[in-house]
Amino acid sequence: MLRLRHIKKDEKIAVAIPTKNRPSYLAVLLTSLLNQTYTNFMIVINDQSDSPIERDDSITDLLTVARNLGHEIKILRTKDGWKRHQQAMEAVPKSIEFILRIDDDMLPDPSFIENILKPFHFFADRPLAAVGGCFPGPKAKKANLDIELAERSQMSTLDEMIWKLQGHHYYNKPEVIEVESLLGGAICYRRQAIEEAKGWAVEGYSDHAHREESDLCARLIKKNYTLMVTTQAQAWHLLAPGGGARKYLKTPSGNLLISDPSEMESDDKLFNARMETILQNTGPAVSKPKRYKISDLENGVFMGSSLRTLKGTTLSVLENQILKKIRWLYWYLTK
Fold first, then answer.
1. Is residue 2 one of the residues assigned to a domain?
2. 48 within some domain
3. Which DSSP letter does residue 237 get?
């Protein structure tokens, strides 16, 4: 493992955005970036659109504003294929160590960048390679973190990658949580760690990019790096129905995949084959993962606690075995 340097107080970072045929969503993301509390960043846009994004008036205006505010802008025109994410990373100047890769249909809170960088400051002496946030959909509601962590099915591990913790809710408690894999959407990486793990992308994956982030997280774990989630960094996932790598039909109950699933199935096969090799040579990344209250970390207290609490387990049992049945019975009697 490489010797990692500490993050600086006002470190300049890069924000890398892959985009394809959805300029209205990209405009929302750019607007939110221009209103971040953390302002020392450049923007790299990996444009795979049929028509260059500079032809969209709103995008052109927003990029002009960004440049006037002092943000360096780089735009790449890349073709579909597994190399596109690697090309985006290579476009970031070598002097920049921290790269936030964020999808073009995300709406980050104004303090998102500031909050996703905090764990790198808190755990400066640990081999922390990447930090993810929470990405609830537009209809998501605030959840009790103790209840969610009481259920093992919420946590993503190397051998069972589940995205409930990051992708379904936002939470009542600002905490940092150790994990074994991160949900794509918005992840802040260390360049040094990515380079030691042999790059952002792996040859063989399809244009859907279905398993690229999971593959990278597994490679980082194999190199004994740490991954974390902070519930304080929240970005709404707007669930764009078109553009991007996949197409969806937007319905009242959620997005339904209408793209040909064969390429995603091919990605799964490749990923599972690669994981067999990785898991044979890699023990659990976090044998007993911990959670840390951000208020404690800000006061220099680093005594983490186990994910499950007695309170959370009790509330989980109450919710799943009693309250859900009562609500179902009420629905049945009043329908």
1. no
2. yes
3. E
Interatomic CA distance for residues 256 and 128, integer angstroms = 35
Per DSSP, 21 falls in state S
Q: Please check whether residue 263 lies inside any domain of the structure.
A: yes
As a whole number of angstroms, the distance between CA 215 and CA 204 comes to 12
Q: Is 72 within 8 Å of 43 (Cβ atoms)?
A: yes
Residue 328 lies in a domain: no
**CA separation for the pair 94, 194 (Å, rounded):** 13
Residues 6+ apart with CB under 8 A from 155: 149, 162, 165, 179, 289, 307
Contact 184/245 with Cβ under 8 angstroms?
no
pLDDT digits (tens, 9 = 90+) for 85-128: 778 888 999 999 999 999 999 999 999 999 999 999 999 999 99
Query: CATH number, domain at 89?
Result: 3.90.550.10
DSSP labels for 187-203? EEEEHHHHHHTT-S--T
Report the domain count for the chain.
Answer: 1
**Is beta strand 248-251 parallel, antiparallel or unpaired with respect to 254-257?**
antiparallel
Q: What is the pLDDT of residues 148-173, one digit of tens each?
A: 887 755 555 665 656 667 877 788 88
